[in-house]
Amino acid sequence: DVQLQASGGGLVQAGGSLRLSCAASGFTFDDYAIGWFRQAPGKEREGVLCISSSDGTTYYADSVKGRFTISSDNAKDTVYLQMNSLKPEDTAVYYCAAQARCSTPQAMGVMIVEYWGQGTQVTVSS
User: Which of 29, 62, 78, 100 is 20 to 30 Å from the Cα of 55, by its Cα?
Assistant: First the structure.
């Protein structure tokens, strides 16, 4: 059974931190890039950042550079998203996804998603 399990969301005040996890099972983790998308209220889904499981290449949206860090633990088939200095505009449902390659966040949105995670809610209060 192919599965991406997203977890770690919650409610945090502006300036706080959260750590999201995306645990993969049922497919070969190293064959894919793992990315994070988010869907904010009243806005379209957008790619945020991604990491290539094979070589560690990463791309970040300008809006999260310097605040978010993505990492991959291939031994655990898990990707982590460390979110620091959170802002109210980061409020969204965050989805992890498996794609063929790690591309720019804009390109992520037009590439095929092979597998979707279920999403985890991040709420940042002001």
Answer: 62
Q: Tens digits of per-residue pLDDT, 56-111?
A: 999 999 999 999 999 999 999 999 999 999 999 999 999 999 999 999 999 999 99
Contacts of 53 (CB under 8 A, 6+ apart): 29, 30, 31, 32, 33, 34, 72, 74, 79
Closest CA to 96 of 24, 40, 36: 36
Helix (H) or strand (E) holding 44: none
Distances (CA, A) of 124 to 10, 36, 45, 50, 69: 8, 17, 18, 22, 18
